[in-house]
Amino acid sequence: MAQELKFGYTIVYVKDVEQTAQFYQKAFGMKVRRMEQNRKWAELESGQTTIAFTPLEQRETSLTGGVHVPDASEAPSNVIISFSFDDVDAAFKHAVDAGAVPVSTPEDKPWGQRGGYVRDINGVTILVGSYVHEP
């Protein structure tokens, strides 16, 4: 019998969990759902899925071979976090004003979305985009 699949959460390994959670609050307006007292885990309210942060160094990272931290001079990793907003341009500006590094300013995409890219304080690439509207 097949079990129902539910996406649990996305975990982002970061240098400083508390600082990263505060950045996402300031840059994207997200609320912290849970911050462990030892500051080694934070979860943010992000709709039906959860984004979570945990430190770079821990048992799980050694089991999987470590974590590669992206450098601003390198190409982005093969995963991008995407946040959807009604006013993409305002959200993009707000994120940059809060410390996100602009990668490309918002533009209209041929598939019906408006979006631009930033990097967070850990070098993670984020799409600041609109919902895709069917033509």
**Largest β sheet strand count, sense and barrel closure:** 4 strands, mixed
By CATH, the topology is 2,3-Dihydroxybiphenyl 1,2-Dioxygenase, domain 1
Proportion of residues in helical segments: 10-25%
Estimated structural class = alpha/beta
What sort of overall outline do the alpha carbons produce when their principal axes are compared?
globular
At the fourth CATH level, what is the homologous superfamily? 2,3-Dihydroxybiphenyl 1,2-Dioxygenase, domain 1
Name of the CATH class:
Alpha Beta
Widest beta sheet: strand line-up: 1-4-3-2
Mean pLDDT: 88
Number of domains: 1
Spell the H/E element sequence. EHEEEHEHEEE
Organism: Riccia sorocarpa
Pfam families: Glyoxalase
Protein name: VOC domain-containing protein
Domain VOC: 6-131
Task: Please provide a written account of the structure.
- This is VOC domain-containing protein.
- It holds the Pfam family Glyoxalase.
- The protein has one domain (10-129): Roll (2,3-Dihydroxybiphenyl 1,2-Dioxygenase, domain 1).
- The protein has 135 residues and is an alpha/beta fold.
- β6 (101-108) and β7 form a beta hairpin.
- The protein has helices at residues 17-28, 59-63, 88-97, and strands at 10-14, 32-35, 42-46, 49-55, 81-84, 101-108, 114-119, 125-129.
- The model has no long low-confidence stretch (mean pLDDT 88).
- It is globular, with a radius of gyration of 16 Å.
